[in-house]
Amino acid sequence: MTSVINAVLDAELLRRGIYFPISIDLKKPHLAVFGSSGSGKTYASQLLLAKAVLNSAKLVVADFKGDLEFSFLAKQEHFYRFERVGLFFDFVSDTLLKNRQSGQDKSKSLIICFIDEMSAYFTMLEKKERDIRIRQLSRILMLGRSFNIHVWISQQRPDAEYFGKSRENIHNILLLGSFSKEVLNMLLSDDKDVVNRRQSRGKGYLISSGEATKEIVVPIYNIAKVQSKILEGMYKSSEAVDSE
């Protein structure tokens, strides 16, 4: 298994007719895909998940908005939709992470815990439950690296209020489509004189800690094959027992 996934293309080289993949380092924990409606963030997220499964990752998936894009996972044990998204946080924080901390699960295999439209989910919660979920998220973001449990998030805006004190633990960010000056200053302040805020669907930037910002394009892919690979990678509760 390699430690990188090649899911996006170098935009500058693509303009010259050269299809050159840009590597995303899986050793850097946690990833976020940000983009307004129509930016292609869910499309990109599915490709990233499928590529991670090719690298033997297992997946736990939550989808608050519950539209058709992740409906192919409806029968999976660890797919959480609508009001069940809270169970996603409970499972990741209180089962997956706890079992690896305690040694009950001795495996080191990568588990990617993906949540689509996380900020929309947090917005609808009462304050008490929202605070609980944010604490759980912060715990996973801070401790997950040590136990090879990574959080991947897809949402419209990089709202700092929902990441607690641990947003700096997200080491890979894809910013897709058009974005505001506020987002530019938040994520690309060092590059604001050279980036283009008016990107089209599936185009944007990869911001990876310790590396220069890269302009990227999400390639067109076979959706059926990608979704089949995601299904293949869905986590089963029996796997932790089998790994002991």
Describe the fold and architecture.
This protein is an alpha/beta fold and 244 residues long. The protein has helices at 11-14, 41-54, 85-102, 118-123, 127-143, 181-187, 223-233, 238-243; strands at 4-10, 21-25, 31-35, 58-63, 79-81, 111-116, 149-155, 172-176, 203-208, 214-217. It has a ten-stranded mixed beta sheet with strand order 2-1-10-9-8-3-7-6-4-5. β9 and β10 (214-217) form a beta hairpin. α2 (41-54) crosses α7 and α3 packs parallel to α5. The two termini are 20 Å apart.
Question: In short, what is this structure?
Answer:
The chain has helices at residues 11-14, 41-54, 85-102, 118-123, 127-143, 181-187, 223-233, 238-243; strands spanning 4-10, 21-25, 31-35, 58-63, 79-81, 111-116, 149-155, 172-176, 203-208, 214-217. The protein is α/β, with parallel strands linked by helices. It has a 10-stranded mixed beta sheet with strand order 2-1-10-9-8-3-7-6-4-5.
Derived from helix and strand composition plus strand pairing, the structural class reads alpha/beta
Widest beta sheet: strand line-up = 2-1-10-9-8-3-7-6-4-5
SS element count, helices: 8
Shape: globular
Give the mean pLDDT: 92
SSE series = EHEEHEEHEHHEEHEEHH
Stretches where pLDDT is under 50 for at least 5 consecutive residues are none
Q: The biggest beta sheet, please?
A: 10 strands, mixed
Helix content: 25-40%
Please tell me how large the radius of gyration is: 17 Å
What percent of residues are in strands? 15-25%
According to DSSP, the number of beta strands is 10
Amino-to-carboxy terminus distance: 20 Å
